[in-house]
Design brief:
It is elongated, with a radius of gyration of 15 Å. The chain starts with a strand and ends with a helix. It is α+β, with helices and mostly antiparallel strands. Strands 1-2-3 form a 3-stranded antiparallel beta sheet. The protein has 1 helix and 3 strands; from the N terminus they run E-E-E-H.
């Protein structure tokens, strides 16, 4: 099984505002998982309100990727 991640910068058409701040863009990730027969794509967004960060997403991703690469099933 193969797992890949890449940066995905989303330029927003309007300034996104909530009580905690505002943004003109969002920095997310695009994740691809595949094997010999299938492929899946997903988007990952982190939320600082819940203690998430870009770095934490990448660390967790590396752990999952290593686990999948070591799985011989």
């Amino acid at each position: 099984m193969k797992l890949e991640i890449q940066d995905l910068k989303l330029n927003l058409s309007v300034n996104w505002k909530i009580a905690r701040g505002a943004a003109n863009h969002k920095d997310n990730f695009l994740v691809k998982i595949s094997d010999k027969h299938n492929q899946g794509l997903s988007e990952v967004a982190f939320n600082v309100r819940y203690g998430e960060s870009r770095e934490r997403i990448l660390e967790d991703f590396d752990r999952v990727k290593t686990s999948l690469e070591n799985d011989n099933t």
